[in-house]
Amino acid sequence: MQTQTKFIAFIVLVIVVIGGIGLYFGLKPEAPSKYDSFAQSLTEKGAVFYGAFWCPHCQVQKAEFGTAKQYLPYVECSNPDQSQTQICIDKKIESYPTWTFQSDVTLNSDTDPLVCDIKTADKEEPEACADRSSEYFKTWFFAGHSFSVKSSTDPVKERNTWKFPVGTQFSGEIPMEFLAEQIGFTLPQ
Amino acid sequence: MNTYIEIINKILSLGTIFLQFVILFIAVNFIFFRKRTNPFLLFFKEYTFILGFLAALGAFTLSLFYSEIVGYPPCELCWIQRIFLYPQLVLFGMELYKKERSIVDFSLVFAIFGSIVSMYHVYIENGGSSSLGCAALTPTGANQVSCAVRYIYEFGYVTMPLMALTLSLFLISILLNYKYMSRVK
Questions:
Q1: Residues of B in contact with A89 (CB under 8 A)
Q2: B144-153 per-position pLDDT tens digit
């Protein structure tokens, strides 16, 4: 009987300790990060980060910012059941993470991008565009970039630079350097 | 995400890490200090069924909490893992209630199959989505719930399938320990 009491006490102790540490981690205030000012600048400059809480790419993107993620211009696009929130339906967000900026975006590339037209039921799309094209926008895929560019307006091309208008969506793994470049911010070392 | 869900996620992730240490502890004792007088192995043998029952009860309750209360829809692999997990509650319950020790082998087989599915799920989760982002469940799209989604992602590696894998491995380790310690004289 005494052994059983000890065992129950042990189990309760384990649960209390784990619960206590969990509460501490869950409620403790976030420590400052070297990316705080970068994340705040993104918000001030009107950039928007559309994401879903369950999306691994969004989790990686947020993890890159560390505790500065609290300052990111993040918009949650998913309800718990994975259906889309109205704001993201209205913004025609089709994948996560998607970033938009309040200024033109210039992309450099030595090769021409793959361009996929808007997906329609009556038109057969090229194989390279299968499962990648958008229902609302024309989509550009640049070699060496792990994200797609969606816009309803064609970019202005000058030599090896493509200039996309305000409102263009950038979806996929967006490097921090690219984000910093768009708002003219120098990343801390 | 609600703060209370974040706190529950943190607590569960810590519980998972704790269980991983317990598995490691049992494995080290089992491999290097395997004697019938080893007090730790005797402790786990003594409480095999109550520990297994509590672990299965916790997993059963929490999996239903996430799908039915929080509202996270389970993917196909999650359902297969549930198929191997939920009977554990009945098996361990019967073991406790009826002292029916022949059920040990059935529990072990369920745990082994459950861990194989969990391992595959962890693999899918770590490389299952395109670098171009996660597809949204748009009103016009008819996407299924992908098994590459990560509802929980804590401490840089703890996810739901990893929790399921840890639980299965814990059950395997205590059951193997029970079988061995019952046999040695």
A1: 138-139
A2: 677 888 888 8
Decide: B171 and B52 in contact? Cβ < 8 Å. yes
Q: Give the A:B interface size as CB pairs under 8 Å.
A: 117
**What would the 3-class secondary structure string for chain B be?**
CCHHHHHHHHHHHHHHHHHHHHHHHHHHHHHHCCCCCCHHHHHHHHCHHHHHHHHHHHHHHHHHHHHHHHCCCCCHHHHHHHHHHHHHHHHHHHHHHHCCHHHHHHHHHHHHHHHHHHHHHHHHHCCCCCCCCEECECCCCCCCCCCCCCCCCECCCECHHHHHHHHHHHHHHHHHHHHHHHHCC
Separation in Å, CA of B61 to nearest CA in chain A: 16
B135 and A97 within 8 Å at the Cβ level: the answer is: no
What is Dmax (Cα atoms) for chain A? 84
> pLDDT, tens digit, for every residue of A92-136?
999 899 999 998 888 888 888 888 888 887 777 777 777 778 888
